[in-house]
Amino acid sequence: MNEPQIHVAGNLAYTPTMRYTPNGVPVTDLRVASTQRKRVGEEWEDGETLWFGVTCWKQLAENVVASLKKGDRVTVAGRLAQRTWKKEDGTDIVNLEIDASAVGVDLSRYPVKIDKPARSTADQETWGNKYVHVPTGEVTDEPLGDPAEYVPFSGDEEVAA
To answer: Would you kindly state where each structural domain of the chain is located, as residue ranges?
Structure first.
């Protein structure tokens, strides 16, 4: 099926909450506002705000709820759909909806610390809590000096000789 893909940057209209389908699948609905800004002479002028409904499923739904709140600047990628219906007064309503494949934080606004869940693997049991010093490839039990130069060691990394 040829469905249009879209990527949108905008702000969350409300803090996401999760619900579950009758089969127990987690679902999170978002509302993202995206306003075009353009420079007119020396001033910035806001254009019309586009509102997108966003649906997140499964692990994405859980991570969105754990990570985001109202007002956060986000980027959303997914399949675009347009829903149209008539209100009781006869006016047409058009709603743009995205079935999200990815949701992220807009790093042009603020830094983010990534918190990866620990994998339960045989490598982890073998190597325990070890770290690799990125510049030298040395494996150590704990970071020494600048912690930004160390990454957790899983046994998969190539270590410099």
So the answer is: 5-105, 122-153
CATH superfamily of 5-105: Nucleic acid-binding proteins (2.40.50.140)
With contact defined as beta carbons under 8 Å apart, do 83 and 71 qualify?
no
Averaged pLDDT, groups of 10, the chain, 161 residues long: 84 93 92 90 89 93 93 94 88 89 88 73 54 74 71 57 40
pTM: 0.64
CB-neighbour burial class of residue 64 (10 A; exposed 0-12, middle 13-18, buried 19+): buried
Cα separation of 146 and 59, whole Å?
33
Residue 7 — left, alpha, or beta (φ > 0 → left; ψ -120 to 50 → alpha)? beta
